[in-house]
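Q: Predict the bound structure with uridine-5'-diphosphate-glucose.
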Amino acid sequence: MQPLAKMEKKEDKTLHVAMFPWLAMGHLLPFLNISKLLAQKGHKVSFISTPRNIDRLPKLPPNLSSSITFVSLPLPPFPNLPPSSESSMDVPYINQQSLKSAFDLLQQPLTEFLRRSSPDWITYDYASHWLPAVATELGIKKAFFSLFNASALCFMGPPSSLIEDARTTPEDFTMVPPWIPFESDIVFRYHEVTRYVQKTEEDVTGVSDSVRFGYSISESDAVFVRSCPKFEPEWFGLLRDLYQKPVFPTGFLPPIPEDHDDDGAATWVCIKEWLDKQRVNSVVYVSLGTEASLPREELAELALGLEKSKVPFFWALRNEPARSGSLIPDGFEERVEGQGMVHVGWVPQVKILRHESVGGFLTHCGWNSVVEGLGFGRVPIFLPVLNEQGLNTRLLHGKGIGIEVPRNERDGSFDSDSVACSVRLAMIDDAGNSKRTNAKLMKGLFGNKDESIHYVDELVDYMRSKGSSHVSHVG
Ligand SMILES: O=c1ccn([C@@H]2O[C@H](COP(=O)(O)OP(=O)(O)O[C@H]3O[C@H](CO)[C@@H](O)[C@H](O)[C@H]3O)[C@@H](O)[C@H]2O)c(=O)[nH]1
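A: Predicted complex:
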């Protein structure tokens, strides 16, 4: 018999977890957040992405740098993809499917890496629908990590209907689907669907996002969801019924501000200087994330609306690939001098949201932005554009959180007055008091790091109990 001390106890086993996020900042960053929590527990992480994406990530704190290894796989060139485009923000929305085709070509080098390094688990994203089959063949356990919350996943449906791609008309997406057994108003608005569909180029890969999601879910051993049952109790229950497999919350995985110290250091100096001059809670931060963009006329209404609100604002405008001419309406910056600041390009968002002058956040409602804004108690003003952003807006609005900029139901148009009223309601008007209170209350939930640590402990217990038979020892 082996002496007890020499026997490997499952509960002591150090895991080696590979991470393979989709090529988008809004995906790479939360995959890195969960990697750090695993590394803090002494586990080993191989974080796999392309060179430019790895370069863009915040630097690792020194105590974690030996536990997280970045594995850089060059992205093969693909027609329609400008050179060095490696992330969704480098590519116009209309060419996103080409980026997915290039991403699919990573299957071979990734398989080689997995064969060589034999991780216990691989945690992957929705786009690599081919990965579970590879992992199964290599005897590696696999978890799908969803950066969409539980209600959005439930709305999308069970894997069988995702794979079937059953919903075809825009109207199908504006109705509560039959698999939701309780009352819900979490549906898309007509314009949120039509714009999305119109903007998507012909599917060069032959695999729709719905099918990618379907296989990623159905062939996983477990699903991890970036949310928590305290916030979405009925949706987590339903998700387990729909998926018929283990579903684990990860909590919200709020960013750790100190980890962002180096993020945009030079830009931050100017931004901070401006924010320092503003009153506490007075500024609305405006950003529509890394993928969404507005037509020129809506951008002009947004600008005019901010101006009319008379509320101080900091507007981070995305550098849109392949868009010509200035995005900012003529004369706007001169007119708002003293009221607002516009920055075109990448900004250190977490640092901005953390600054005490910021009170509100006009957001497209991407899930990272929601987590970051509410994690600091900032009042959200919703202007959803793409993907599941409309569903996130309904979820939060249904809980009394935030204010949605009213838009024409059919074509999605809005005017400057609706922007100005929404901003004033969130930031100043007495009628917005409850919204400001509710946003502050959410800080305890969305900004709760301990809760994510607790959920990651549960993931680790599960992964250890099911992990592969590779032997690796602590220490
Ligand atoms: O100048 C910038 C712009 C963005 N960010 C960060 O980049 C992330 C952006 O994520 P998110 O707010 O979720 O926006 P998108 O990247 O546009 O979101 C995509 O990914 C999300 C997660 O899957 C989905 O919820 C969205 O619908 C989808 O468009 C956040 O962490 C931001 O802090 C910066 O730090 N600086």
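A: The first strand starts at residue 16 and ends at 20.
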